[in-house]
Amino acid sequence: MALIPRDFFARHSVQVAPELLGCVIEHQTAAGLVAVELTEVEAYAGASDPASHAYRGKTARNAVMFGPPGHAYVYFTYGMHFCVNLVCLGYGSASAVLLRAGRVIEGVELASARRTRGAAAVPFRDLARGPARLCQALDIDRSQDGTDVCVADSPLRMRWPDAGTTARSAERKVVSGPRVGVSSAAEVPWRFWWEGEPTVSVYRSATRRRPKLVTP
DNA sequence: CGAAGGATGCGCT
DNA sequence: GCGCATCCTTCGA
């Protein structure tokens, strides 16, 4: 297992994000190991980025983003979902990369069991397709907030692509586009993914809300 | 197919 | 209170 060194993350998130494609996040729990090869990520620039949680300054929730690079920032949203970021640059910059989607390469059965609700089986491509699904497949929640992913004995860690993945990466084309679900700075093309990869989430623009009140 | 709405809890104004 | 870096189900064509 070749761990990704902290220096890798100690750069601007926009530079780190596309290089994370093909890298592997793995979570060792009592139930077993699940590893996911990243296929889609989003960069957030920190205090200067209106779409970032760090835009309005440091709070108890986002404190990890203001810490050193190579740590996991996990947040809870929409009353039921978790999303995981990897802190970049560090030392107060509060920049990070959101892990949006990936392909499960180890522990498929365990990931499938975590993702399955009721009777309907989840298709393989959908196991970690979307930031909240990825967290569910890996069993990541707020107890992983602040975890150092750059040490070998961490239950949650990042490693370089496998040899087979590296070969496949060479044939992959990295493309970029607007970020998903953010209402401000939506024009910034800081979402990166592998073109034609089936595990990439479906794009949804942020302007799908606002049912607003009705007049009877 | 696509669009629409509900679920659901917490951080921030 | 409001609004979310979301997902899933249902409804209609």
Q: Please, could you describe this protein's structure?
A:
The protein has 216 residues and is an alpha+beta fold. It contains five helices and eight strands. Strands 1, 2, 3, 4, 5, 6, 7 and 8 form an eight-stranded antiparallel beta sheet that branches. The model is unreliable at 209-216 (pLDDT under 50). It binds a DNA duplex (13 and 13 nucleotides) through strand 3, strand 4 and helix 4.
Helical amount: 10-25%
Which residue ranges are poorly predicted, with pLDDT under 50 across at least 5 consecutive positions?
Answer: 209-216
Secondary-structure-based class equals alpha+beta
Main beta sheet: strand number and arrangement? Answer: 8 strands, antiparallel
Please work out how many helical segments DSSP would assign: 5
The share of residues in extended strands comes to: 25-35%
| Strand and helix order | HHEEEEEHHEHEE
Please compute the radius of gyration using only Cα atoms.
17 Å
Tell me, rounded to a whole number, the average pLDDT. 89
Our measurement of the CA-to-CA distance between the termini, rounded to an integer number of angstroms, reads 63 Å
The backbone outline, from C-alpha atoms, is: globular
How many beta-strand runs?
Answer: 8
